[in-house]
Specification:
Elements: H1 4-7, H2 14-24, H3 26-43, H4 53-77, H5 81-103, H6 107-113, H7 115-132, H8 139-154, H9 162-169, H10 172-186, H11 190-193, E1 197-199, E2 205-208, H12 218-238, H13 244-268
Antiparallel strand pairs: 1-2
Helix pairs in contact: 3-4, 3-12, 3-13, 4-5, 4-12, 5-9, 5-10, 5-12, 7-8, 12-13
């Protein structure tokens, strides 16, 4: 049996923490299982019968949301809280895109075209790297950059920021309350790194904390589940599937989140 001291989060010893995690979040893990199964029922029931852009985008975004939701559960169970936050942020981005596609008629086409801007920037960077190595620019890339620049200008192609996509989706509250906080883990901000430091009562740093985390995942489960259910609901409605099962799980998630918050409030005031 491998130990955490030798193999870290890849060790056999982490399975002991997983048991504690499962006990701590039994109700939320059970709900996540129900959501995951409902998601698989939906994705395998969808029939894409045309090349209509909205159908293609919504079905592929659903696939991304399902796999990311499973990734969140996997890393959360191993006690990787920073990585779990990265997964929740990714879930938010898919949710924003799905919401914008459903709410804004022209968004799907404009969003798909916006990749031309990223494509041009990548070609510019590749040629810049060639120049740094003392090599001449790639002539094919130069011609393609000029072609893309003309298309971007002529068709007025624009790049969408995450906040703008969230606004088009009517999901600014998720962005304002959650996205910036989760981005700290993704970008390794100094504030997010602080929780990896062990500080004694006098405020002195004594060591780096490197271990699985069990506490502190309630919010992550609430939002990951909520955002995944939002995607399931919007995709269900678009493909004319009955969303009643999704809505039942949304209510269950809301109730569970309220119960968790109420329990936390009781602990704060010392009520058993």
């Amino acid at each position: 049996m491998t130990s955490f001291e030798t193999d870290g989060f890849l060790s056999d010893e982490v399975s002991g923490w997983e048991e504690d995690f499962e006990n701590r979040y039994a109700a939320k893990l059970q709900l996540a299982t129900e959501v995951n199964r409902l998601a698989h029922e939906l994705i395998f029931s969808i029939e894409i019968t045309s090349s209509e852009l909205k159908e293609l985008l919504l079905s592929t975004l659903l696939s991304r949301q399902i796999s990311t939701f499973q990734a969140f559960i996997i890393v959360a169970r191993r006690g990787l809280i920073d990585q779990a936050e990265m997964m929740v942020r990714a879930l938010a981005e898919v949710m924003f895109s799905v919401g914008a596609i459903r709410k804004e008629e022209s968004f799907a086409k404009r969003w798909a075209l916006s990749d031309e801007i990223s494509r041009k920037k990548n070609l510019v960077r590749l040629n810049a790297e060639r120049c740094r190595r003392g090599e001449p620019p790639d002539k094919t890339a130069v011609a393609l950059i000029a072609e893309l620049e003309k298309r971007i200008r002529d068709e007025r192609i624009e790049k969408f920021s995450t906040v703008r996509i969230a606004q088009l989706a009517g999901l600014e509250s998720y962005y304002d309350a959650l996205y910036g906080y989760l981005s700290m883990a993704v970008h390794s901000s100094t504030r997010s790194l602080e929780r990896a430091l062990k500080i004694n009562d006098s405020g002195k740093v004594t060591s780096v904390i490197y271990r699985p985390v069990v506490d502190g995942f309630d919010m992550h489960f609430d939002f990951a589940t909520s955002m995944t259910l939002y995607v399931l609901h919007e995709v269900s409605v678009h493909f004319k599937k009955n969303p009643s099962n999704v809505e039942a799980l949304q209510r269950k998630n809301e109730n569970l989140a309220r119960e968790t918050q109420a329990a936390a409030n009781r602990l704060e005031v010392g009520i058993d």
